[in-house]
Structures are given as C-alpha cells and as structure tokens.
C-alpha cells in the first residue's frame, strides 16, 4: 500500500519516520500526553514543555518563533569526545541545525538525520547518524504522569569496531518553579538574578528554584516550590559551564566524569543539568539513559522523590512502566472515541487516530465509559447552584451503596424528584475529562489549561473551551457516546442568550463572556453567527436519529435556561448608522453576575425570572429564537447580515463584521429550517408555549416575509432597504422587551402558525442561496451590503471554500448539482494541486511596496488646486510626477479625521473631499477588504488550506 513504507517498528511500537528531515523546512509540533504534561518543539531544535499551563514550564514558554530562536541556549545539548586512535574528535549531534547557513551548507556528508513519531503522538525521536565515527545518537521526548517530562537518550555503535568515547548530555535554560510567563517574557534578566540551582549529591537530584518570590514589596515572600531534574544513570552536574569544561579537557584526553562534577550550588544564572559518561561500546551495543523533569514540587514531594531515587534501578524501572502506562492510556482515550482503525492503509488509520486524538483534547472523553459518579455529580451541583445541594443529596439518597450509575438512572431520578432546576442540571451533566482550552506557542492569544487533577492530586472531571471549538468536537464525540447527545443539546441551549446568540466560552462551571479592554487589541466583544446554527443542527439531527421522543417532549416542556450575557444590541437606527459598533457592554451587570456566580454557583449567570429564580423556557422558544435572530438579519439575495461585531468561522475575515453578508449561514439556516419543519409537523401537539415577545416577533416576521413570498428576481435597491429595515425593527422591538423586562408572560403559537412562518422564511433563504450561484459553478460565500440613500446594494466578493462546504451541507442541492459543484471546485482557483486539497480562497500576490499608494497625475487633475493649497500634506507628488497619499492614512476614516483637523485655509471643499475619498478607494479598494485573510500569509491568510 503506497505511503506505508515510512512506518517502522521501534521496540515493538509503530513509528512514522521522515529521513533527511533537516533538508525540509522546519516544522512545529506538539508531543501529546494522557496526563497534564505538555510539550511543543520544532523539528530542528527549540522546545518548551511543562505541566498544566504555561506558568508551570520547565523550559521558557515563548511564542513559537522565539522557541525556535532560543534553540542554541534552551533544551537539549550533547557533546561527545570520541577516541579515534591518533586524535580525539568532538561531535555535537544536531549542532549544525543551529549554525549559520554557510556551516549548514557544508554539512558533513557522513551525517544523516531521521525523525520518528509514534502513532498516538506521545513520543518523538530525533536521530543523527555519524558514519565516520560509526555512532548513532538518538534522543526522544515523551512523558510520564507520575514523573513528568522525560527525555530518553541512546548512543549506539553502528560501526564494525569498538568505539571509546566520553559524552556530556543534558539540557540548558531550565526554568525555576514560580517564574510565570509574564515575568519570563518581560523581565527575564531580572528573573535570572533570583535563580538558584541546587545539587543534592546523595540522591543526584537537581532542584531549580527562586531565592524568593520576585517582588518589590517591603515584605518577605518565600518561594517554597522547585522544579526538579534527575538522570537514571551517570554523574549529574548543574554547572552551566560544563560543556566548555568538557571541550577543554577533550583537547588532551577523554574527559572523566568525576573531573566535571562541579559545584553544588549555582546562583543568579540560568539553570542547566547534564550527565557525563565514559564508555566503550562494541559493535551493535547501546548505552541508554533518561533525563526526567518535574514542576512545582514542595518539600514533601521532594523528600518522597529523593527516597525513591535512593534505588536508581527501581526508579528507572518505575519510570519506564509509567511511560508505557501513559501511552496505553492515550491509546485507550483514542479508542474510547472510536479512533482506532486497522486496515491495509496504515497512513489513513493513523490520520484518523490523530484527528480523533486532537478532537478529544478539546472536547474531552467520558470517564468510566460514560457512567456517572454520584460524588462528582454532587460536585457539579455545588459548582452550578449551591441552593440545590440539599435537594440533590435527597434525590441521590435512593442510590445508597452505589458509586456509579447510568445516565438514564440519574435523569429518571431527577424527573421523579420533580424539581425543574435539578432536572436541568441532570440533563446537562457530562462526566468529561481530558478537555482543555486550545492554545499553543503558535497561537499566543489562546491560553491552554490542562486541569486533570485537584490541588491534592486527585483526578477530576472538567471541560472548557471556546463555544465553536467545543461544540464541533462534541459533534464527533456524540457518535461515540450517543446517550449524551441530549446533554450536549442542553449545554448548547442552556447557555444561549435570550435574544438568540451564544457566549464566548463555556466550561463545566458555567459560561464566560469577553470583556472589552482598551489596552488589549484582542479583547473585543460580539456574537458569532454560523456557530449558532450548524453546530446545534448537527446535534439535533443526531438526537432525532437516536430518540425522537426527547425532542418532541422538550418542545412543550420548560427545561432550558438562558445566558445573561451583559451585552445589549443597540437599536436598529444605530446598527444602520454603524454596523461595526452595535453592542453595548454593561460593565456593572457583568461585575454583579461574576460576583453572584462566585457566591451561588455558575448558574447565577443565567437569566432570572421576576421572582429571582432561574427562568426556564421550552425547546420551541429556543429553536424559534434562533430563527428570529437570523431571519431578522436576512438580506434577500445577499445573506445574513453580520452586524453583531464578529465574523464567522474564519476569524481572518474579521472585516466582514459590519457590512458583511453571510451566504454560509444562509445555507446552514436552510438545513435548520428544513429540520424544524419536519420536527413540528410530526409533533402531536397542536400548539406550543413560548414567551409573549417571541410569539409577537415570530408572527410579525411571518407576515413581513409573506409580503415577499413570491421572489422571482433580485429586489430593487429601495425594496431591499425597506425589507431589511422592517425586519430589523421587528427584532429591535423583541430585544428591547427582553432587555427591559426579561421574559414576559407565556403565549402560544399553533403548529400551523409555526409551519407557515418556517415555510415563508425558508423560501427567502432558498431564494438567497440560489441567487448566489456564480457563473463558474461555485457559490458565493460572503457578500458586502452597500448602503445608499434609502437603498441597499450587494457587492459580491471572490470565491471562498466556506461557501462551497456550506451549500453542499445545506440540504438544498440535488445529487447532480452536488457533483457539478465538486467538479467546478476541482477546476477552480481554490484547488491546490501540489497538496491535492483546497485553499480557503485563491492565493494572490500582494503588491510590492513600491507598487502601493501610487496615484497617476491624470487622476489628480480635479484636485490640483487643493494639492497646492494644502502643500501636499494629504496627497502630494514625488520627483517623478507620481502622486501618493500621506503615509499615515491607514484607511479613509483616518484621512477624514486628518482633514477635519487641518487649518481652514487648507481644508478641501465638500466636492474635493468627495473626490479624495473616491480616489482613495480607487487606489486601495478597501470596499473589498475582508480582513486579515487578504493581507498576511498564515493563520487562515493567503495560501492557507
């Protein structure tokens, strides 16, 4: 089978190898673990690793580029002195990877390198063969739950005769405990002054700590934890000067380990830890050892470790057993999420396993095969709603003598107990573990947190993640644990806002929202649109396949809460005036909700009824509110208006937030509406309970869409404006009622009223999607709404992959249409032949610097008088007669602000200002700007797949 030739067995374990990887472009990777150990490294050197989060690092946690830059001073370093008879040859494996281009180009032809990674991603091996010396050096990164980060080392005689050598091996720039990322990144030179390395000779244990907590306060501040390092064999040394001493000794003879023992305390310097050995290897013989790091050990744990290290052989055996156990545990995690396959195509099997592994690293897996620990459910109740603790204890008393129960048993008990809030928690509860927020050094704006144990070292259940990340992971997980699909649906709906949107992040203890921070350009508020439709839709479809009764009963049952996110969408006039500034943040409400959650549990962040209890609504209410929030922002023929300050899946298209229109969400909305039509049509109920304001909004939208039910072609600019304004005002009325009064009294919608409204709205959605088919057979993904005087136009953008995926998923196209679209996609500019895949959008060449900001003199004819009057301060010519705008004008808004502040005698007239704006747009074409996606070369930017 093609592609299987690069798989090899090492000690009975399957690895994938890349030979001569040093000739490839350097690549960044993660070495996974079933524990809280994390490790990120570059293929050509550079590593950061630790436990739990970036503040528990063994090697400095930087952005990925700086991790690479630091490879000469951070992480592994090895130096061998080899007896070649008449002379001693020094060999530094992998050293040339950190050298200058000239040195790398002159690479010794006897040197070859190979990298290996095992199939579950828990170990990576770096290998360098030196044919001249007849030696092969290997080191590997892996991990142990009990012991920490592990670096395995092996030196093998691959020649035909015995080789005598001395070797110095270890790691540099080891972090002390207590040195967080902010301190390391901003004050590393100050941090060095606090560093202390201690060597305990009796146990050969190195400890790295701070002489005190870094502080300028006039009070003592002890640092009582240390990072540790030990080797399974050899003489250990902590002097940072050990490599130099070794090299100097090797001038005359092979260095002896005892000659490098060095000092027992190193003060005010970056920490290192090495082992030195002198060996003679016969052909085929190997010498192996491991270097082991752990973080944040207090005095008690250090004492326990020293006792263990008193028997080095036993410690080494226990280490290997735990490494193997952790690998098996990772295989078990992957298997529990159906990630194991066994076919003749090994690459496809490994690829599937890797996809599943990274999926569960975000979404988690279900502990104990999905069974529920009664003790943990009580912890969950105390996290969410402390007032329910007595009721929960009483409810669980019926399970006396049991520790684990089935989910169905818990839900049945909650239903019989007849407390709707307790039932809400029972339905939403998921015994997930292994989940963590995503983030790594290549994405510094995300902060990971691997929380698998409590402060006493006991394993805990937890999940957390950004909304879009965790629900797309749970969608896949629902196929492995179908009985928890209702829990995922409940988690979605219970954390949805009452006006139909989703918060930024959810976790086991509740929900979070973004808070604006003027000092942080990444801190911004708003709602994403597409995530609110397709993620829920996939879960609803899954549940409908498994058990229709749950959805049918929930349509008329008050089971669901709503997130009290302190955002308020502004009135429609404000949205119309500036669709990029549409949400007000209520800081006072935010602070009050956060405080209440700390006191009463995470459910204090939910919308309350007038009596202060958590307000519960029906599934019908939730499903229709999503319809209202999307239909009220539908621009027929253009897409869903992205006027909630956030783009959709692709954050790099961030400039679409504002005037952007989403065909993508329109496609998913069609699928959602089709499903709802079937769901309500099959229901035995003739009417459904919703709140009064929702009933009024849905009916108003139904009548509004009825006026346009026979779409035959594009609406005129005036018709489009009238349609959008009327929809916007309907939604505004509902929002204001919710914001001012909360949920109102109950009302009902008949089945016929719901089906009529869904049918009319769907007709407008289908019309919109169909109208966005391009002449090349593809579909538009996003468009731009162009405002005029009481009119709206639609500007189409370039083709994007998102639109093709969405329309194929829309349940709108027939079989032939799907085939035709796939053929058109393969023939399009999006197809990347080299990788046999598809880019997010066609690649393009950005203009070179000297090709930007050039305005022909012929285009400035009408502005000559202004140019002279303003002395070229807004637009001026160079010595070649070519004109250029002021280089400080980042965009037209900045230019307008600049013009407003000019002295009266230099200001342009109204006509001249209009001419300047038109000329600026002609020069830079900012109306087609979709965001970062078109202006940089990574992170879903140009050339990204």
Q: What is the element layout, followed by pairings?
A:
Elements: E1 7-10, E2 13-19, E3 28-30, E4 37-42, E5 47-51, H1 64-69, E6 75-83, E7 88-91, H2 101-105, E8 111-118, E9 124-130, E10 135-144, E11 148-157, E12 163-174, H3 181-186, H4 188-194, E13 195-200, E14 205-210, E15 226-231, E16 235-237, H5 242-249, E17 265-267, E18 271-281, E19 286-297, H6 299-309, H7 312-336, H8 346-363, E20 365-366, E21 372-373, H9 374-384, H10 389-396, E22 404-405, H11 407-417, H12 420-428, E23 432-433, E24 464-466, H13 467-480, H14 485-494, E25 505-507, E26 510-512, H15 534-546, H16 548-554, E27 567-569, H17 572-577, E28 583-585, H18 587-600, H19 619-631, E29 634-635, E30 639-641, E31 660-662, H20 663-682, E32 687-691, H21 692-706, H22 717-741, E33 746-750, H23 751-771, E34 782-788, E35 791-796, H24 801-808, H25 815-826, E36 831-832, E37 837-838, H26 864-869, E38 875-877, E39 883-885, H27 892-900, H28 910-924
Antiparallel strand pairs: 1-2, 2-8, 3-4, 4-5, 6-7, 6-12, 8-9, 9-10, 10-11, 11-19, 12-18, 13-14, 13-17, 14-15, 15-19, 16-18, 20-23, 21-22, 24-25, 25-26, 27-28, 29-30, 30-31, 31-34, 32-33, 34-35, 36-37, 38-39
Helix pairs in contact: 8-13, 9-10, 11-12, 13-15, 14-15, 15-16, 19-21, 20-23, 20-24, 21-22, 21-23
